[in-house]
Amino acid sequence: MNESFKALADPTRRQIIRLLREKDRSAGEIADYFKMSKPSISHHLNALKHAGLVQDERHGQFIMYSLNTTVLEEVLGWLLELTGTGKQNEPEVHFNKEAEEK
Amino acid sequence: MNESFKALADPTRRQIIRLLREKDRSAGEIADYFKMSKPSISHHLNALKHAGLVQDERHGQFIMYSLNTTVLEEVLGWLLELTGTGKQNEPEVHFNKEAEEK
DNA sequence: TATATATTTAGATAATTATTTAAATATCGA
DNA sequence: TCGATATTTAAATAATTATCTAAATATATA
Question: One Pfam annotation, family name (chains A, B) (predicted)?
Fold first, then answer.
């Protein structure tokens, strides 16, 4: 969850996500949309993959990336819980100084 | 928008948001929930404020913080656009190498 | 098999962000 | 007005992240 939020915190990575929403694309095809070097894009793709936001699969020479909307929906869920209709003063948040977010 | 995502990328700041969802709280009250120093919490509160996610208002000695759900809903909107039902291959994303995210 | 293409990994550096202690500012209440 | 409380700002440092070039790996194809 923390990884997802961190991955979404970068504008390049958010643009990559939008590109992948349209269709699956190879690493090089993605890189062509940016002025950044290919290794940098590779690094961003890795961050997205590590967060579970995208998946990759080799097809011959190419490595195709695709979006994993499941994780995006988890993030969405977290936000909905906050803005969420109704439950305005309902579910108490309980954590102590040691507590970590799941 | 970028500021919002960056603000949400930190677990301490997300916990602060959850605390403020319950009710408005003073800076000190918020700081008591964490083992971090007060200046650090002040810094995080500033990041949230800068992103427009929270507002502050002085009440005598205390400075009360409250949640601004409007900005959270904008973030929510961004995510909904991606996971969004229906419009699967509809709105083309068009940006060039110079383009900045609004 | 040698060469070209696609992509990642390594290593270095620059930039950003988080954190702390100490000091400054503001308000309250005796 | 003075001392206590609440909070922020400043300055320094540590930790993390982003970026680049060069090198390594994997696959395709002539």
Answer: HTH_5
